Amino acid sequence: MAGAFDFAPAIVLLPFVSFLIAVGVALTGRDLLPKGGALPGIAATGGSLLLSAWVALTVAGGEYYDETIYTWATGASAGHEFELTFGLLLDPLAAMMLVIVSLVAFLVHVFSLGYMNDEGETGLPRYYAGLGLFSASMLGFVVADNLLQAFVFFELVGLCSWLLIGFWFREEGPPSAAKKAFLVTRFGDYFFLVGVVAVFATFGTAAFAGPESFPVLAEEVLAGEAGGEVATFGFGAETWFTIVGLLILGGVIGKSAQFPLHTWLPDAMEGPTPVSALIHAATMVAAGVYLVARMYGFYALSPTALAIIALVGGLTALLAATMGVVKREIKQVLAYSTISQYGYMMLGLGAGGYVAATFHLLTHAFFKALLFLGAGSVIIAMHHNEDMWDMGGLRERMPITYYTFLSGSLALAGIVPFAGFWSKDEVLYEALIHGLGSEGGLGTVLLLAYAFGLLAVFFTGFYTFRMVFLTFHGEPRTETARDPHGVRWNVKFPLVVLGVLAAVTGFVNMKPVEDLTGVKLTFLHKWLGEEGASGLLANLSAHHYAEVAHDFGGITAAEVGSLGPAVVSLAIALAGAGLAWRLYDVPEPVEHTERLGAVRDVLFNNYYQDEYQVWLAESVVRPIAGVADRFDQGVVDGVVDGVSSVSLVSGDRLRRLQTGIVSNYAVLLTLGLTALLLAFALMGGWF
Amino acid sequence: MVPAEWYVILSAAVFCIGLVGILTRKNALLFLMSVELMLNAANINFVAFSQVWGNVTGQTFGLFVQALAAAEVAVGIGIILVLYRNFKDIDVTSAATMRW
Predict the structure, then answer these.
(1) Which of A48, A159, A229, A284 could be bridged to A279 by S-S, CB 3.0 to 4.6 A?
(2) How far apart are alpha carbons A63 and A55 in whole angstroms?
(3) What ipTM goes with this model?
């Protein structure tokens, strides 16, 4: 009987077909499909969602799948046999991510009916083509069974991001933001590409799973079991694995908008809001974090790489949260909160909290998609004005948006019992116990990252509720806010689904409650593989990762109860939210952030990150590029041009020998014969 | 018995006459004759050395060269006819269009 795994390729192919349909319609230039091409997209992502759920159920039954579908190149080099393939890897992590991506993609397609179609946008087939291709490439990335396939789809996802941010290409901002997003993520992907090549050169394979996969080979090398099979290019094995891991991390930092490559994400808000929800919050930005989780068995081998991941994550979480405090536009606040939340996930991964980070990935996907779609609903109501200072008092006028948005905000701020509380608390808890338990520099770094994360909790609570109070509470501050535009079912339906999910998803993994009551409540730990996982999962389970991180990565847990840290982080979040309540939940709020003075300017300008990156590009990279250009034009091209002009000139001279007069040829023949005879005579010693 | 050196000197002399003819003359018919001379210089060598070594292979080869020369003359005369038709002349230096 055909099982779920036989239909798994269709999860990726269905949205691709919807992309082809939308492109076909767009090319005809006529309005052939109702709703501008939205229906194929909705059907395709709905189908993907059902199939993903089926796959998840099958995986829950203990069956896993890892097959190569298509080998597109083979070869051998330096004693390694290469096979470049596309394949499917369906394990608990991939199944969970498939459900998240296809669910959010489906809801965003539905929401787009309200945000794009009902608002009378033009160019809709192009929009839905972009969404379809994006869904297909993201799903393809999730099921990738090797690093190269992951890279290919990683790039496709970046391309779709560029297409969709620049959707309103006739205005000035979006095309520029699209280019910025593309270039900044490309900068990170460059390191990723080098890392992929390095993995192939080192291990001869880029497979994620199975006994011949590169994380397993690396582990065997470090354990001293298989020394001769990998090439480490003169470095010690551990140093070299750290270098390779950090190269790949370059792509992760670019795509997951981590410091210092986060600058593209706030600008990406120029795109349509459903796109922001799908790409720049719930899925594409998750690709980076997912990649680290996917090859966690490799990162867990290197204490240095773990420390860097944790530090980058903690720093990003804190910096982005502070920047979010002073923003005026609702989508900007959400953009910085996204960067900050992905910082938490990186912190969790770096601190050895594989399950915690994956858990935060899950909950964040739901509540951030919810917040963006809620913001989209507000933006529809406000006639596309995004400035929170022009809103106010929308609570009575759009109750469904308000209550779902509130659910997402409570999750984001980490207030019990909403989803974000459980996951963020577990990330911080892992950072704390591993920071206290691990020895040497790693423990210090983890504790520092924990401090950053804890501080960021305060700012998160503050900016989240500043946003809620400014948007929905108080008195309307403009005419538009007094009489907002209504929204229809196609906006409310996704909001309600996600609102419920944002409230309840956290219940899949309630570690503090488990410790308090003794009842088994950590279902996600079980799902991602506890002790005794066998078969394919043996090397992919959370338990295995924890062992590797302990044996090789130097991650050791200290004995700390989970309840105390949970209460601390909840209290800090409540303090932040309470401050926002005191300052902004009044009928006529004023801009308190102005009182911060110079600090506010620094925050509002994002710590001048853009400025120094532009300075780097213009004052450092451009002169270097100029020198390289001159070298290229002068030396490299010069040699090529020189060879060609030498042949041209000599050919021009030599052809004059061919006069067309037979007598001259006869003379040449005779002279040649004479010369030959003379040569023979001299060589043969006739004289 | 004539010594072999005499044959070789004769052959070299005939060859050089042919060569000078090719290098100095412009008339195509004289060209053809000069080529003929050079071929026959080679023939003299064949026959002479055949006699010196007492082996008939060289003489057989001489007959083959005669036949070949006859065929070559037929082709050469044909070319000269075409040359005349196209250039109204059999001067080999006037037909100089096959050049760069």
Answers:
(1) A284
(2) 9
(3) 0.87
